Each structure stands twice: as C-alpha cells, then as structure tokens.
TrEMBL record:
Domain of life: Bacteria
Name by which UniProt lists this protein: AAA domain-containing protein
InterPro entries: AAA_dom, DNA_Partitioning_ATPase, P-loop_NTPase
PANTHER family recorded: COBYRINIC ACID AC-DIAMIDE SYNTHASE, P-LOOP CONTAINING NUCLEOSIDE TRIPHOSPHATE HYDROLASE
Protein's organism: Methylomonas koyamae
Length: 176
C-alpha cells in the first residue's frame, strides 16, 4: 500500500524528469548551437515522451493505419492537448499526423484513414497524401543498408521523392 507521501514524492520526481529536457534545451549552449532538435520517441505515454513534449515547440505524429498504432496516435494527441493545458504561452504546435506504411488496397487501412479524416479535432491535422508502404523504406533503415539513407539514393527513387515531399510539408508547417 502506497502512502500519500510516497505518491507525492513519486509525482514530484516524475515532474522533475519531465521538466529536465526542457530546462536542458533552454540553456544558452543549446540555443546557440542548434537551430533544430528532433526528438523521436515511442508513441506511448511515458516520462520520456512527456519530457520531449514539454521541451518541444512542434509535434509530428506518425502513425500506421493499424488499430494499435492509431491507439498510440490517440495517446500522443491526448499528450499534446494536456501539454497545452499546462502551458500559459507558446503552445505546443501539432504540425500534423502522418499516416505511414499506407496500403490503399487494404480496406481496413482505408477505413481507419477515413475515421481519422472525419475526427473533429484531428481530421484537419492529417498530412495528405499518406506515406505509402514501399520496401525501399524498410531496406534503407536496415543496420547495414547501402546507401545508408534513402536521401543518398538516386533523386528519382520513388521513396526518396516521397520522403522529400513530406520533409517539405513538415518544414513549411514549422517555419511558416
């Protein structure tokens, strides 16, 4: 049985963890050295994910059009809303939800995508078109891939062209 004091102590430790990344990235060194910091976290609620959200100015939620992935996306959307309720100013900007590994031939994936499009809060945040499932993405992320990145592939490679288009959309949403 946990006592009230143990719960308060655990809560204050968790809040210190959540605040740590924001405090660190606010230091002059990081502000002067970096124009952009990208933090990739798992899509579930944890102190690490909450810490990244607290430090962030913008949030991108990639998600597959699968039931478990969409549940993780919903957790991230709730984290976004909760973080903004805590902030007095400089709200956390949701730059978009990026559907990944999308197979337009899958009726289940099409239905899931349609449900997100129709969602009152998240529907207009969806980045169009969805990122298709291409084997090139899987190959480029393998440990010993050659080339090491899809951005090192020929510029006419469909996966590279598609990824560059998404990068352009994301860049415009952050810096416009």
């Amino acid at each position: 049985m946990t006592t009230f004091l143990e719960q308060v102590e655990r809560s204050s430790i968790q809040e210190a963890v959540v605040e740590h990344m924001r405090a660190m990235l606010s230091m002059d060194y990081y502000q002067e050295e970096f124009d952009l910091v990208i933090i990739d976290t798992p899509p579930q609620t944890s102190a690490l994910t909450a810490s990244a959200a607290r430090a962030a100015t913008h949030l991108l939620i990639p998600t597959e059009m699968q039931e478990d992935s969409v549940a993780g996306m919903a957790d991230m959307a709730q984290l976004w809303q909760a973080e903004n309720q805590m902030r007095q100013e400089a709200k956390l900007q949701l730059i978009g939800i990026l559907a990944t590994k999308y197979d337009p031939q899958s009726a289940a994936q099409r239905r899931t995508l349609d449900q997100i499009v129709q969602n009152e809060i998240l529907g207009d945040k969806l980045i169009h078109p969805p990122m298709r499932y291409l084997q090139t993405y899987a190959n480029s992320s393998a440990t010993y891939a050659n080339p090491r990145s899809l951005f090192e592939m020929h510029e006419n490679t469909p996966a590279r062209a598609e990824a560059e288009q998404f990068c352009k959309i994301i860049f415009e949403r952050i810096f416009s």
